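notes to self, project folder thing:

trying the whole complex as one job this time. last attempt i did each chain seperately and stitching them together was a nightmare. two parts in total, labels are on each line so i dont mix them up again. if this works i'll redo the older ones the same way
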Amino acid sequence: MSLLRELWRSLRSGLETLGEMMLFLGRMLAYTPASLRRFGLIVHQVYNTGALSLVIIMLCGLFVGMVLGLQGFDVLQRFGSEESLGTMTALSLLKELGPVVTALLFSGRAGTALASEIGLMQATDQLAAMRMMAVDPIRRVCVPRFVGGIIAMPLLAAIFSGIGIYGAQLVGVQMMGVDSGQFWSQMRASVETRDVMEGVIKSCVFGVACSLIAVYEGYNAIPTAEGVGRATTRTVVISAVVTLVLDYMLTAALR
Amino acid sequence: MRQTRAIEFSTGLFALLGFAALFFLLTQITNRDIRFGETGYQLLAKFENIGSLKVGAPVSMAGVTIGRVEKIEYDNTEYKAAVTLRIEPGYNRIPDDSDAAIFTAGLLGGQYIGIGPGGSETYFKDKDQIHLTQSAIVLENLISKFLFSLAGKDKDKDQNQDAQGAEAKTQ
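result (full assembly):
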């Protein structure tokens, strides 16, 4: 009986968090048009979330692409169709790995930074001070970070995929000796604009989800050192789970 | 002031890189050519059966791609597939009695149109029709033809043997 009650309580608190998050999203979306007028704030956040994540994204993209080239070559060689390596790596990067791995890295690199920054602002009463000065902290602090994350994510994912394809080419063509003309022309022949757009749509959705989770967790962090730490952890965990669940749903919907 | 400039600079660089990557993916990885106006000229070819020919498939002469399949429609009056080809402007000396056939690239590859040059002195112009066409080879048809021809041979053989047997008897 107490087990059931416990289950019900955790279900209820989960639903409450979800509902609160949705309401938070609605409030931020309502402020978004007004905050676009203060574009400097958003540019600053695009710098924080995007430009500062550039190195890690490029490095990871290169190595993910290289490993795809190596693994793909081994598998395709068994069927005698190494020439399809370009198609395989391009499609898996564009449709799947680019958006997903970028979202995971984004929540690890930028999401945690957002959550701990806002959480610390909360803990050091900076948000309360803003309220005292009749400045809405959601408008001034949360929305620019949210919008900045949404702008940065598709660009990061595109960079990831581009570098990844280059990395696959590096391993497949330069090291393994796949014909470079076949690599590119087979890729071009079978990748469609639709595939690229699928990746872009996915990364936009992940951008909304990951930024929302990071900002929400930071804003609702318990204002202690421990609370901020927990908010940061929760950001990464929830973002990763939500990204992978959304990924399946989007793949099924866009198929 | 100096610092904000630096932030804007690197944000701009980041955005530039991002859009460059997106542009690269859209133009270099997909086979969509960004065209500024239509170039070249159109030819029409009607086929009994186009198999799995797709819009965008290459049109080749002697193995060199000279154009692409632009449009595939169904001709209601002739019960044929009407395929519109767009040939690049450089290839304007195709004899007007050339033939078009649908081939398959490799065992599992996509289908493409191959044009074999004729011997005429006049050349195709815009919106001309290629009259000599050969349909795609459909594997099922090929197999059924082969099986029927086998069965036919067997029957012939049986009849021959019967006739020989009858001859022997009469002798």
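what i see at first glance: Residues 1-34 of chain B form one domain.
need to look closer tmrw
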